[in-house]
Amino acid sequence: MIKINEFAFCFFSSDVSIVIEQENELTKLSDKYLIERWYRHDRNSGKYVSFSQMVNDAIDDTDSEFMIFCNPKTKFTSNDIEFILDKLSSGYCFASVVSFGFFGFSKELIRRIGMLDERFINGEWEDDDFAIRLKHFGKAVWWEYDTTKYDSNWSTSGNLKHITLSIFNQKYEIVDDTILINNNFFSHKKISKRHRKSNSEIYNSWSSEDKNDGTGKMINYLTKYKTKLVNYKSFQEVVSFNFNLQRDNNFFRLELSSDKKITMFIVFLKTVDDNRQVLWSDSISNNSWKTFEIYYNNDVEVRLFIDDNQIYTNIIGVKSENNIDFKLPKILKEVI
Questions:
Q1: Least confident window among 95-104, 119-128, 202-211
Q2: Among 26, 157, 179, 194, who pairs with 161 as Cys (CB 3.0-4.6 Å)?
Q3: pLDDT at 141
Q4: Is the pLDDT of residue 297 over 70?
Q5: What's 250's domain CATH number?
């Protein structure tokens, strides 16, 4: 059991009015804790290249060992703050209430597994990446996703949305119940020198991964999969394939034809006027098809990914058919 008397609270909003509203809950704990505050609007009021970069700045800038991070879309209470602190003091190396919208950890965790991966530009898949890294680390994690405390309809995502899937696919491959980790791509920036002195008391307080708990997609990585670090050899081959997409109002049909083994990842989003909110995403393998419904009556944006690349994007109307032939170099990997 670790006693936490002080912590840093990191406000990720660049809007001062939101920070003031959120700070009303934080100040309720002023009599119980020494609270260091980190304000994104003071550090960088402009746009960060990645969410990971913002988290890493907060880690390096603050002096406190324990840290809590807050997204501008999160509606938290002082009880939520104490919930995270309680988990961090009772055997968990990471704890969240709203996934990567409201979460906390100690700098000792970052000393052990490295900083967040800033290659995940524009903010996507860095939470999946971090969850897998925590699973591989093997210590207890409480990863909660209370959707009632997060405004998922508000988004300022730009044109790079989903491009970071390519980074994720370079690092990881999921085969049955195992996440294969590409050893050639599994390196992470170290914490700054002034924070590198290890705290063995905190490290020794962490329970093992059999205590993992929570809700949402990320807890699946932490409870349903094993991890394995592997080395790959890669070679390139030109592959021809056909993709057919049909839309009839809310009904969609996809088909992928190829004489080679390939998997395509597809994302459907609302258009830029609706902040590119995700409507549907999934993968399809060669010589297969699938049908589904999306209850949305406007144009949608479709994005296709093969391996580490986004290969196609287009806007499709409520009644359309797209039949596309591709001939592209494909990276094939084999485990050494």
A1: 119-128
A2: 157
A3: 98
A4: yes
A5: 2.60.40
Domain membership of residue 309 (yes or no) is yes
Q: Are residues 275 and 221 in the same domain?
A: no
How far is 279 from 277, CA to CA, in rounded Å? 6
Q: Would you say the C-alpha torsion 253, 256, 261, 263 has a positive or negative sign?
A: negative
Q: What is the pLDDT of residues 225-244, one digit of tens each?
A: 999 999 988 778 888 999 99
**Number of domains, the chain:** 2
- The residue whose two tokens read 């406000």 is 11
Confidence tier at 155 by pLDDT (50, 70, 90): low
Q: Is the pTM of this model over 0.85?
A: no
Sign of CA dihedral 285, 289, 295, 297: positive
Q: Is 336 within a domain?
A: no
Query: DSSP secondary structure string, 44-95?
Result: --S--S-HHHHHHHHHHH---SEEEEE-TTB---HHHHHHHHHHHHTT-SEE
Please state, in angstroms and rounded to a whole number, the distance separating the CA atoms of residues 243 and 328.
13
Q: How confident is the model at residue 336 (pLDDT cuts 50, 70, 90)?
A: confident
195 with 320, same domain: the answer is no
Residues 204 and 258 in one domain: no
Where among 229, 251, 267 does a domain terminate? Answer: 229
Helices (H), the chain: 16-26, 40-43, 51-61, 78-89, 107-113, 126-137, 165-171, 200-205, 217-224
Cβ neighbours around 34 below 10 Å, total: 10
Residue 24, domain CATH: 3.90.550
